[in-house]
What does this fold into?
Amino acid sequence: MTSNLLILYEAPALGLQLAIDGILIGAVFALAAYGMALVWGVTNIINVAQGEFVMLGGLISILGAEHGLPLWLTVPLAAAALYALGWLLFYTVIVHLLGRDMFNSVLATFGIAIVMQQVMAHVFGAADRIAASSLGSWFFLDNFVVISKMKVVVFAACIGLGLTLAWFLSRSRKGQAIRAVAQKPEAASILGIETRKVYCLTYSLNAAICGAAGALAATAYTIQPYGGLSYTVRSFMIVVVAGLGNLGGVIWAALGLGVAENFAGFILGTQYQIAFVFGLLVAVLVFRNWRLRRQRKHLE
Amino acid sequence: MAEYRALTPKRLLLIASLLAVGVAAPLVLPAYQLQLTELLLFIVFALAWDLVGGQMGYNSFGNVLFVGLGMYGAAIVQVGLFYDVGLYNAARGGGTQFVFDVPQFITGLALGIPAAALISAFAAWLLGSLVLTMRGHYFAICTLGLGIAAGQIAAGIPWIGAGSGMLTPNPPEALGDVALLLYYLALGLAITCALTFAWLLSTRFGLALNAIRDDEDKAEAMGLKTHAAKVTAWVIAAGFLGAAGALYGNVVRFIDPVQTAFAGATIGVWMILMALLGGKGTLAGPIVGAIVFQIMKELFWTYLLGWQRVALGLLIIAVAVFFPAGIVGFIRERGSAKAKEQNQ
It folds into this structure.
């Protein structure tokens, strides 16, 4: 561990590399977290299957690419497929959880995650996978810093998608309906908004966002049927740090998490990277709660 | 508090017959001995989860943390009393130099199980003040994170076998049927757990837990020391989980950090499912739930191999969405509805 710190000290360019890679992956986290915040804010449900949606999006995109689809086309394909899945899940499961005890929704979406994991492992195989891309890399500082062009494309696409979404929520009629329901469902319903349809739209939209994020991520990062939970936990942590309904905060928290995770992976060893993510989750929650306790409040 | 009445003759008879079934079961059904041992441990898992989740309303998704700590704690004590743990794990417990004779094995077990309970209880006490002040979603996800982080950390420590896991001591052949011994230990633990909880829930402490579940702020305003009660309940539950984990490790004989010890996606969810299936917040519920669950699980594993997780996941969704009162809760609701009809 100390030797790794020494390497970082002696080769600062390596630190730059880790930071850049962290920022690039952070955009994928931001997109998944944004979706989670949307569902959480509107329906008061924590979607534990969030990470599985991301993984499924990635696997669909890889499957599409293997069948000769161009990579840019696999992203809308994955998003559309996940939108349909989200719609289906909403009317079979989620609709019964609206307004119920949060424990039921966490458990039920956990159940969805478990089902999806094994189904995905059967359909796509349980191995780590990545979509083949051939964009090459840029080299800087005597080849000390290598930036994969694909990762930059993924980053830009994620940010673009996030901004489109923010625009959709603030400007479009449907987006306004979603925000109205999030603020006060009863009032929105009196004004003629069909709240159930809005909930359905929100959940399906979240699935589509995750699908697109996964499809983009698959071109540069590994995708694994059983690897979803860490994305769920990252999303949750990002939303907790940023606060609900704070898009800017989500982006900063996500990029920060990407960087922190990369440094931790390097310093502690990659086998501890996931442990770091989950440990950081606990630390963040305990810290936030401790801050609130001074005002005799608590995370609820 | 009607449900924790004194021991009427009818109840004594029920308890005696259950005890007789428990003692006789492995002798009558030797082919299912392993499953029966597992069932008894599942009963402890479900009961311990329900004390905090059902009775106190703190739905933990990370109780598997205490199971895993107990599993590793016991194995380390069992090995560490006689050999160097690091060397033992480096040799994967094999070879001729790591042999346990009968007194060594028995001593290891006799000290390992209480040690496991103490380790888990201590961990719960340490974490309690940090985690039990959160509520709702935050408590659920935070405990989920704790369980998984522990597994990932354990998978990185070479001293306890890192990712390739740790073997519990090989039982000496001279000892005879160790599986039967473990069964009776599990039976003893399950009975102790059920009786302890029945007693706890009949005291003021049990009322305090229910008050916290129903309205924590009000309970605190009434002068109840809610924090102390919460931590105490968590520590007690963790102690039983640790002891059960210690036995579970010795039953399966191989401790994988992520698949058996800190298995959030299997045992971690199963214990919640068992409590919910049987009836959350009742004493009989988790026991009934564990029995039904164990039967279903064995059926899934036999007839749906490869899709068993899908089947269990669907069961989780179905129970959470359509059957949240559980079996015992459902029967009680029916019972009270009937009583109302007769009164009218």
Notes: Chain B is about 75% helix and 0% strand. Residues 273 and 321 of chain B are 12 Å apart (CA to CA). The interface with chain A takes residues 53, 59, 61, 130-131, 133-142, 144-146, 148-149, 152-153, 155-156, 163, 264-265, 269, 272-273, 276, 306-307, 309-310, 312-317, 320-322, 324 of chain B (CB under 8 Å).
